[in-house]
Give the backbone structure.
Amino acid sequence: MDSRMKLAWIAAVTLIFAFLAAVYVTKTFVTTIMLSVFLAYILVPVYNFIQRITGRKRLSSILSILIVFLIFIIFVINIISTLSAEVSNLSLSQEEINRTAASYINQKTDDIFNNFRGFTTKYLPDSMTPYAEGMIENAKESVSAILNAPTSSIAPEVIPHVVNFIKSLATGIASNLMKVIVQFGVAILLTYYFLIDGKSAVNNAIALFPEKEIVRRFLAELNAIYNSLFNVYLISSFITGMIGAVGFMLLGISYPFLWGMTIAIFAFIPLIGTSVVYVPLAIYYLVTQNYVMGGIVFVFGLIFLNVIPENILRPRLAMRGASIHPAITLLAFAAPLFVVGAKGIIVGPAIYGFILAAYRTKIYFLKAESESVGKKLEGNDGKEYGDQAKSSENRIEGRTGDDGDEDASEDKNRSSLPIGTSKRQGRVKSALKRLTSGHL
């Protein structure tokens, strides 16, 4: 082994160890890097659109990130305000429920013990009536205290648990606050640089591979598949959520924008979809005997949140993408959620898309190779057929007399027959004709 080969092996081993060390020290940010790549990929259309208007890469990248950040902030603020309002209403409703329950219990208790009083007054002797009424009154007070105890003890029992949960949640957030802030900042910066230099980085990486045509075809297939798995689903889900928010606002349903965001989230999940939102809502209105509203909500959800997005909107958005079987889409989004958690919604489609792109690239080059071999075979067959036709013409020109003319016509007929059969069939016919003419 010469010195150059030794140096190559040493360099390869050193690079492998350096790569493993880099993976080890950045393992905490693996999720952050994946999220940054995902955000950069789905923001590429927005970035390209803004860049065509501004003509500046850095400004376009910043504006693209700000759009996503503002949408996220609006979503969080809307959820917090809605939850706070509902908790306040729930506390007020709980007090009203307690008062109503206590009033109902007292009324029913009075009715029961009044029946007992009537029974004692009617059937017991007058001397025993005062004692019986005293016993009934004591029993009424005891039963009322027992029945009213649960409603009066709800707040003292529930409030400490709620306070402890809030304290534990605040403690967990405070302990991981610095880590979350650092990861968030790294994700923003990585997304910013991926948008600016991502294309040139991919081209430089392609230049390192020996088979550049295969790599480019693989990346083209991968881009089409990821476009169908991520961009098409995200855009169609966002539009479906907007339709739901506007529709619920026109119908007078409370918190329409929160409902719209919920619809957008569920629309992103294959085979689950928006039906888990509008069907329970329609059932709620039907149970509360608001049959007209329940029917309107169901019809609106079926047409505008299910039929139109699935059969018109999403197919039109996917025209430029790759067609993917629904079973693969379901496995890509749903299965990883049970293995790696929320990260699976990014990891799953990325892995399944990578495998599918490799498979389609292999199929593409196999078809191209078979077509190339077929064309070569056709060219060789045509050349052989031309040589046979030329030799037949030469034989025709060298013959004279009637037999020569007759043989020439036979050779011409023979030249028009398929290759491999014209020679044999022509000789047999010529021999038969010559024998016939000799007998005559």
